[in-house]
Automatic annotation (TrEMBL):
Keyword entries, A-Z: Disulfide bond
SMART domains noted in UniProt: ZP
InterPro entries: ZP-C (IPR055355), ZP-C_dom (IPR042235), ZP_dom (IPR001507)
Domain ZP residues, every copy: 16-262
Gene3D superfamilies per the UniProt record, alphabetical: Zona pellucida, ZP-C domain, Zona pellucida, ZP-N domain
Protein name in the entry: ZP domain-containing protein
Biological processes per GO annotation: binding of sperm to zona pellucida; egg coat formation; positive regulation of acrosome reaction
Pfam family, one: Zona_pellucida
MF terms (GO), sorted A to Z: acrosin binding
One Gene Ontology CC term in the entry: extracellular matrix
Length: 333
């Protein structure tokens, strides 16, 4: 059997990114014309196919980003839609003979904010009249996720917020987050650190993880890329803290690592990123300064899960497992 590495070339693929869709034209040589049904965009076959006078074939793929298993990722001020073209002379699980990445990049709208219809979906009471929320979002960051099943390598955005009520403006921080296989942490529990050292996103030095730009000081989105935590069912345990929005410190911050600059950056004010220099060392606790804000400020422990991380090939067998991610707070069950 011929191999696609000899018959297909990247230059034969033309990509046009539209507003909410993509048009891909793929020209193949005459030897591949009988195998047109084995050309794919994600999991979609060609929407149009024709044989040219030269004997070559031309496949056109016209699809929206909600089709063909496109993945969406929001990074800073840009939105990425990603997929791949493939030629599969043999059916799965055999690997494709040829793969070509497809990517469309758009600038995020200036007025973009997550459109949460019911932000109190996952709620736990905290100090006094403070009410904390934590939930898994969908990939579009537009609402609470409808499933707790997450394909390996796909986005895993975690949203947290605190209701202001009668309080002065608040800054919500994730001081510490770990992944664990259980809803309760006990001495000796197996954990995977995600955020530590008083607000340092440790995972951002290893994977494509970050804090997304805030749309309000009282909420924060931790944007993780799912991976193998070492256990199938994952619970995210986070210590959420509130603080004065104008008074950052080594112990009151949200820092993530920017691989492009090889340095830690303060989410809320990059010009003051020196506060993040301690992330690779040990960040000091803040000393007490008066009555209005205690040295640590109000904090609350929240738990989200279980989240089920599955390999892409296992998704076909997981349809019956679809369910909404819920808090582990027994009062909400």
């Amino acid at each position: 059997m011929m191999t696609a590495t000899h018959d297909v070339e990247d230059r034969d693929i033309n990509v046009v990114c539209a507003n909410n869709s993509v048009r891909v034209t793929w020209r193949v040589n005459a030897e591949l014309v009988p195998y047109a049904a084995r050309l794919f965009l994600g999991n979609c076959m060609a929407s149009q196919w024709k044989v040219l006078p030269s004997g070559e074939g031309e496949a056109q793929f016209n699809y929206t980003f909600s089709e063909c298993k496109f993945t969406k990722m929001v990074k800073g001020k840009r939105i990425f839609y990603q997929n791949e073209m493939s030629y599969r002379p043999q059916t799965k699980p055999n690997p494709p003979d040829f793969v070509h990445p497809i990517e469309c990049v758009y600038r995020r709208p200036k007025d973009w904010i997550p459109r949460f219809v019911n932000p109190g979906y996952v709620v736990s009471e905290g100090h006094g009249r403070l009410v904390f929320h934590m939930a898994l979002l969908n990939e579009e960051l537009s609402s609470i996720a409808k499933t707790n099943i997450i394909p390996l390598g796909s986005p895993m955005p975690i949203w947290a917020a605190v209701e202001q009520k009668s309080h002065q403006p608040l800054l919500l921080l994730m001081e510490e987050c770990v992944a664990a296989p259980t809803a309760e942490l006990r001495p000796g529990s197996q954990v995977y650190p995600i955020i530590g050292n008083k607000g340092c996103l440790l995972e951002s030095k290893k994977e494509n993880s970050m804090f997304l730009p805030r749309y309000h000081s009282s909420s924060i989105i931790l944007y993780l890329q799912s991976f193998n935590f070492g256990f199938r069912e994952v619970y995210i345990h986070c210590k959420l803290a509130v603080w004065d929005p104008q008074n950052f410190a080594e112990s009151k911050k949200a820092c993530h690592y920017i691989k492009g600059t090889n340095r830690w950056e303060l989410l809320d004010d990059p010009s003051r990123s020196s506060l993040c220099n301690c992330c690779d060392l040990s960040c000091k606790s803040r000393s007490r300064r008066g009555v209005e804000w205690a040295s640590d400020g109000p904090s609350h422990n929240s738990v989200l899960g279980p989240l089920i991380i599955v390999d892409q090939s296992d998704l076909r067998d997981s349809d019956t497992m679809m369910e909404s991610a819920t808090t582990a707070d027994p009062q909400l069950k």
